[in-house]
Structures are given as structure tokens and as C-alpha cells.
Amino acid sequence: FITPNMGWEMLLPIFAAVILGGIGSPYGAMVGGMIIGLSEEISTAFISTAYKPGVAFVIMIAVLLIKPRGLFGVK
């Protein structure tokens, strides 16, 4: 069935991937998506799967603190 709440689980990782790659950089968003996806899956070997969405959030915050425009952001 289709419900209004469908897709909310994917919103944070997608947003984190765009921020990680850099706003305005499609290739950066693809690289950011790969980094977020791989780090979420690898993190399940070390922490509980309940914290899997938090991994994307932590990576997004770290990138914003270190490089506010993202990895491939343009000025």
C-alpha cells in the first residue's frame, strides 16, 4: 500500500549525500552517495543497525564542520 510516510527513511541519507558531495555538483552527489552508502553498510559490522541512519547524520555534520561547501562544492 502507498502511505504518506513512505520514503522518510531515505531522506536523510540522500540529503547527506548531496551535502557531502557539494550543492550544485552532480558528480559530487554521486560520490557522496557512494561514501554514505558504503559507510552505513560497513558501520553495521561495528554498531547496531538501529544506529544506521545516524551514520549519515554524523558524516554530514563532520563534512559541514570541516569543509562547508562539500567535497566538490563550487564557489
From TrEMBL:
Membrane topology recorded in Swiss-Prot or TrEMBL: Multi-pass membrane protein
GO molecular function, a single term: L-valine transmembrane transporter activity
InterPro entries: ABC_transp_permease, BCAA_transport_permease
UniProt GO BP: D-alanine transmembrane transport; L-alanine transport; L-isoleucine import across plasma membrane
Domain of life of the organism encoding this protein: Bacteria
Main localization, broad class: membrane
Entry's Gene Ontology cellular component terms: plasma membrane
Spans traversing the lipid bilayer: 12-36, 42-66
Localization in the cell: Cell membrane
Swiss-Prot/TrEMBL keywords: Amino-acid transport, Cell inner membrane, Cell membrane, Membrane, Transmembrane, Transmembrane helix, Transport
PANTHER family: BRANCHED-CHAIN AMINO ACID TRANSPORT SYSTEM PERMEASE PROTEIN LIVH, HIGH-AFFINITY BRANCHED-CHAIN AMINO ACID TRANSPORT SYSTEM PERMEASE PROTEIN LIVH
Family membership: Belongs to the binding-protein-dependent transport system permease family. LivHM subfamily.
Protein name, per record: Branched-chain amino acid ABC transporter permease
Species assigned in the record: Aerophobetes bacterium
Lineage, broadest ranks: Bacteria, Candidatus Aerophobota
